[in-house]
Amino acid sequence: STPIAHLQCRETSLDSSLSLSNDRVPRVPVRGFLLGYNTVETFQKTDKNAFLRQSFVPDFLEGKLECLTSVVLLTYADLKNHKVLYWFAVPALLTKPGCSMRAFQQDLLAHVWPESDLERLQKGVFGLRKETCPPYFLFAEESCHELNRENFLRLRKEGSDIIFGFVDPCSGAPPQAEQLMGWPMRNLVAFLCFHLDLGGQSVKILSFRPIRLRRDTMDTEDGGTLLLRVRVPTKEEYGGSELKAVGWESNARGKPGPRWVNLAPLLDSHHLAVQAADLNLKLMKWRMIPRLNIDLLQSTKVLLLGAGTLGCNVARVLLGWGIREIAIVDNGKVSYSNPVRQSLFTLKDCQDGGRPKAIAAAEALNIIAADVQSKGIELSIPMPGHAEDPEALEKSIATLEELVQQSDVVFLLTDTRESRWLPTVMAAAHEKILINAALGLDSWLVMRHGGGLGCYFCNDVVAPENSMKNRTLDQQCTVTRPGLAPVASSMAAELMVSLLHHPLRYKAPAPGGHSSFAPTVADDAKASPLGVMPHQIRGSLVSYTMMTPSVPAFGCCTGCSPKIVEAYSNDKIGLVHQATQSSDGSYLEGLSGLTAFRAEATAKLENMDGDEWDME
Question: What angle do CA 313, 317, 319 make, to 5 degrees?
């Protein structure tokens, strides 16, 4: 540990340092003692009370006024973790038990002094502030004097009514009867006892509380200056020759002990990166969107089903919105055709047969954002018409079920229609926000499920089946214009953020469909702080237009109808197994009532064909 040192600043540079001025100093000097330790063990073993007494009592007994406003600081710097352990003390003499110091009379000075006397006090204190502002002073004969034994004896010999004053850092709280003293006043009273021989006597003390100390004018703004009458304890009440000092501050739990200060946000590159990542969001909240809930976004857990072109772009936009918990599901490998379109992959990920997409994408997110918690899960989503081994099927269902339950929002970003079926059923069963995005050659679709609105399968009159059957290699690949995926991905992420800010979230209503662009939205039940929340957004790069239709849920839907959701809740494994074994989708069509619905529609059409039409 370093030796005790009186800390004095070698040079003080202020805004007035380069100009000549006769301005008064607006500061009260405070002397400090600093003891730094090399290890936390030596910090803990130090006798704190002995050190406090050593740093204060000898100077006090010698009559050094500067010790009355001294501070003590013990420190241990953990440079590796950018933390500092410190314990701060303001030393003051301790009286014996039962001899506490109290002011038995105190009044607001403005209530007991005329305005002329207040002006003389302010003028006198201003006159003392030539080189520094003394923390203590004497006020007598309508003037101020420095506090020392010579001035005191002279004024007392002259028969002056002496008032002992000090600059009080306490706030201007209303006076209370029998109020305990603060440390500047405690030390002043002790000084009066030991060095002015006033022990056992009653004295007047002025607690000078200006609102601020000005450089060039008198302190005319009073912050509640008090006039107190105090009985000065005797030397015996202080303990005689065995003086004790107190003053160690309490820790965050309100008990005597040191505190930690974490400097990592200012020094550690990781923390700096975390703070900088959310700068745009904080500016948005401060300047444009006061109701933006950044904490909500940062705590939202998102599940991305698909790590392809859509999945990569959605993940990047989510990072920009402050989403920090992202799980990615995919069963593919990174190929050499992926990096140019899928922004989370590089050519290095394509080597040796390609890395798993989910793992590579999750690791890329960890590199981009310092505080992101991303994980990749290699998983093949069970699909209607794709028969699987029963044991593997059961394991896949359990894994996907757990991921959906743990998430707040699910994004459906897979390539095929049938791969979207099981997540749609799970999201409906657990009432999760589900955002669906799909691409065509030059058109795209973004939609949300739930809340009485239709899902991806509600507009279909056939159940999902194996769409990859009897397709050539070129037909199995997603062929789309490169600019389409970023647009659809951005729309999907923005729709999620708007939903999260609506009080109904999953059940938020959708506005009426329209195709016109409106720069502002009405503040009604169908809007969040970020705007309206359409059910569907359909866009085309051929005509550069968008539509936002709203479609209600279909009662015979093979994805979200009550019959399908109830069957899943009753027997998850059985439902999914039957769906995967049904190559033509007939099982789901029969279960949901779609087969009966089609039969009824066909019968009605046949009846209409037999009717006679009036052509006139």
Answer: 120
**pLDDT reported for residue 214:** 64
Burial class (CB in 10 A: 0-12, 13-18, 19+), 367: exposed
Report whether 384 contacts 421 (CB < 8 A).
Answer: yes
Helices (H) and strands (E) counted in the chain, each on its own, are: 20, 22
Average pLDDT on 400-405 reads 96
Mapping DSSP to helix (H, G, I), strand (E, B) and coil, where does residue 460 land?
Answer: coil
Local structure of 613: helix, strand or coil: coil
The one-character DSSP state at 343 is: T
Neighbours of 145 (CB within 10 A): 22
Contacts of 80 (CB under 8 A, 6+ apart): none
pLDDT at position 516 is 42
Higher pLDDT, 119 or 476: 119
Q: Which two tokens stand for residue 421?
A: 């079926």
- Which pair of structure tokens corresponds to residue 560? 């979200």
Which candidate, 561, 558, 536, places its Cα nearest to that of 548?
Answer: 536
What's the rounded Cα separation, in Å, for the pair 286 and 28?
A: 37
Q: What's the CA gap between 99 and 596, in Å, rounded?
A: 94
Per-residue pLDDT band for 268 (boundaries 50, 70, 90) equals: confident
What pTM does this model have?
Answer: 0.64
Do 433 and 408 touch, CB atoms closer than 8 A? yes
Q: Decide if 477 is catalytic.
A: yes
pLDDT tens figures, 75-87: 999 988 889 999 9
Question: How distant, in Å, are the alpha carbons of 170, 179, 224 from that of 173?
Answer: 8, 11, 7
Instruction: Report which secondary-structure segment, H or E, holds 317.
Output: helix 309-320
Look at residues 120, 166, 160 and name the one whose alpha carbon lies nearest to residue 143. Answer: 120
Give start and end residues of each alpha helix (H) in 196-305.
264-267, 269-277, 279-287, 294-299
Quick: pLDDT tens for 501-560.
999 888 899 886 444 444 334 445 567 788 889 999 999 999 999 999 999 999 999 999
Q: What is the mean pLDDT of the chain?
A: 84
- Average pLDDT for residues 593-598, to the nearest whole number? 90
* pLDDT tens by residue, 363-383: 999 999 988 999 999 999 999
Mean pLDDT along residues 472-487: 74
Cα-based distances in Å from 64 to 57, 156, 576? 10, 21, 87
| Token pair 């009273």 in the structure block, residue | 189
Residue 398 has a pLDDT of 95
Angle at 249 between CA 243 and CA 253, to 5 degrees: 135
Residue 238 has pLDDT above 50, yes or no: yes
CB atoms within 10 A of CB 304: 28
Cross-strand partners of 443? 540
Selected catalytic residue, list 144, 477, 556, 557: 477
Closest listed residue to residue 7, CA positions, set 27, 30, 25, 37: 30
Tokens of 581: 């074994």
Cβ atoms 463, 586 nearer than 8 A: yes
Pairing between β-strand 143-146 and β-strand 136-140 as defined by DSSP bridges: antiparallel
Q: Tell me which residue of 176, 165, 160 sits closest to 204, measured CA to CA.
A: 165
Q: In this structure, what DSSP letter does residue 481 have?
A: -
Beta-carbon-side half-sphere exposure of residue 255 (alpha carbons within 13 Å): 1
